[in-house]
Amino acid sequence: MAEATVAAVSRSGSHTFGKYGEPDIRLVAGLGVEGDAHSGATVKHRSRVAQDPTQPNLRQVHLIHSELHEELRAAGFEVAAGELGENVTTRGLDLLALPTGTLLRLGEAAVVEVTGLRNPCAQIDRFRPGLLKQVVGRDDSGRLVRKAGIMGVVVTGGPVRPGDAIRVELPPPPHRSLERV
Asked: Locate the MOSC domain: which residues (predicted)?
C-alpha cells in the first residue's frame, strides 16, 4: 500500500462553499486552520451557530480523500481539491473507515483528532447539480452512507503542506464507527 500523504491544502477566510488552494496552511491547537472562517473553539458553521453558538467546534478541520474526487470525475463531475470545502485533501488513506478518536499526524508536527463524518447538505447541489446523490447514498442494507469526508479537531498545531506524510494512530479498542458531526 502506498504511503498516505497530503495531496493539497486549502482555506477560506470567509464562509464560502469552496476553499482556495494554498502552498501551506498552519493548524492551531484547539482552533483549526489559521485564517479559515471555520477556525475557533466553538462552532463556526452558520447553521450550527444559529442553533447554539456555545457548542464546541468538532469541525475545525475538514479532510477529503482525493480518491473521492477521482470517483466524482468518473461519474461526470469535475471537482478539484478544496472545492467541496475541505482544508486537507489526502491520498492513499481510507478516511471513511477510520474510527472516531483516530489521530492523524500531518507532516512534522500537526496532529488532528478525527471527530466524525461531514454531513453533506444541499449546498453541494448548488455547486454542481446532482452532486449530493454522489456523496450521500445507501449501502446494500439501506443504511445512509456519507462520503464527503471527515471532520477533526487540532490537538497539536503546525504547518501542513502538499507532499507531507500522514501517519495514522488508532485509538484503543473498542473502536467506534464515525457518525456525522
From this structure: 20-169
